[in-house]
Design goal:
The complex is a heterodimer of chains A (55) and B (249). Chain A is built from 2 helices and no strands. By secondary structure, chain A is mainly alpha-helical. Chain A is rod-shaped. Chain A starts with a helix and ends with a helix. Classes of the chains: A mainly alpha (55), B mainly alpha (249).
Chain lengths: 55, 249
């Protein structure tokens, strides 16, 4: 198991590159999904207001 | 099919309402496919690939570095094509596609640079060198960041689309420079191993995990691009609704 993490002595370079990949792609997904959900909720709210006539 | 009906079909596809319908169907499937390919790719990369006879285990960095670098350039191509379409045909959906693609391209390019530095240290003895490949890749990241900043700095979306499209098209000159930099100048970076005359110079044990990762990155891009274009459509609709409400009685 420790041989797996050691990666032939190159673990200090390999693991950070995988961690950065997972982190950056994960954050990009999280931002895109949450922005989409927020924009969708906002448009629903505005459309309901418009249908309900001027408040 | 006549030319008229073809262009009518294209126009129908480019209709934001229609786009919301079609992308709504595609979203879950692209998300699942991206997850499957990326899981398989990461599993093969970490657990089943052998060490390289020259590079040892550091070859594992290739599986996250090379697809990120490819996508950094591919996304720029998509973005520049969309920007050009928006500039010439004045279609808002093209503008929105270009805007939605930019942060994705910037993320891939940043990953290519970071993982490349981590690969460079054990193999070349340095994290960074100001040679043609590395410098032109860094410039690609700066162009993405400038493009995003320019969108954010102009309030009116029509004017912003025009200004950013010009930047995207001028910046596209960097793409062939990145690609051919390894042939045109002396560099520490190795030349292309896959897109070369005589076929790929890479063992199948490495080629298949690499291609699986590349397909995963591509589908991930498609999923996030669709999601981000939808977000942009909602934003613009919200903007016009608020204008109507503000002007109402």
């Amino acid at each position: 198991m420790s041989a797996f993490f050691d990666m032939g002595g190159y673990g200090a370079f390999i693991w950070p590159s995988y961690a950065a990949t997972v982190l950056v792609l994960g954050l990009t997904i999280a931002f895109s999904v949450s922005a989409h959900a927020r924009a969708k909720a906002e448009i629903r709210r505005l459309e309901d207001q418009t249908k309900g006539g001027p408040s | 099919m006549t030319a008229l009906s073809f262009s009518a079909r294209l126009t129908a596809l480019a209709n934001p309402k229609r786009f919301l319908d079609i992308s709504g169907v595609l979203l879950p499937w692209t998300a699942i496919a991206a997850l499957l390919f990326l899981s398989a790719g990461f599993y093969m990369a970490l657990f089943t690939t052998p060490p390289d006879y020259q590079q040892g285990e550091t070859v594992k960095i290739m599986f996250v570095h090379v697809p990120a670098a490819w996508m950094g350039m591919f996304v720029y191509g998509v973005m520049a094509a969309a920007a050009f379409t928006g500039l010439v045909f004045k279609h808002p959906l093209a503008d929105m596609s270009a805007k939605a693609a930019a942060p994705l391209g910037a993320a891939f390019t940043a990953l290519a640079l970071f993982t490349g530095a981590l690969w460079g240290k054990p193999m070349w003895g340095t994290y960074w060198v100001w040679d043609a490949r590395l410098t032109s890749e860094l410039i690609l990241l700066f162009i993405y960041l400038g493009y995003i900043a320019l969108w954010d700095s102009i309030e009116d979306p029509v004017r912003a689309a025009k200004a950013t499209a010009v930047l995207a098209l001028v910046g596209a000159v960097n793409l062939p420079i990145i690609h051919f930099s390894v042939d045109w100048w002396n560099t520490l970076h190795q030349p292309a191993s896959l897109l070369r005359e005589g076929g790929p110079a890479i063992h199948p044990a490495f080629l298949w995990p690499l291609l699986t990762m590349a397909v995963g990155y591509n589908i991930l891009f498609v999923w996030l691009l669709l999601l981000r274009i939808r977000t942009e459509i909602y934003h613009r609709r919200a903007r016009s609704l608020m204008l109507v409400q503000g002007a109402g009685p």
